[in-house]
Amino acid sequence: MKEIKNSNPEGTSKVEKQSYYYRNDVExxxxxxxxxxxxxxxxxxxxxxCIYNIMKYLMRYKYxxxxxxxxxxxxxxxxxxxxxxxxx
Length: 88
Description:
By secondary structure, the protein is mostly helical. The chain has helices at residues 28-39, 45-60, 67-86, and strands at 3-5, 14-16, 22-23, 26-27.
């Protein structure tokens, strides 16, 4: 299991990453960063957060204890993103 340092001021504690956040040397956060680079500044903060959640749930659902729960969360975020387009 990979470890990352906690962002506390002392930097003394470590947090173990959950295995559902990476597979085959690919991490969810890196995929999300690439998507943000693709869109650049064309996303609102709300759109960016929806896309972040969509990708997170899409990439990890298969490896969660309750995969259907993550897919339902993904659907909610897609619906929010669609709703955002209706305001344009």
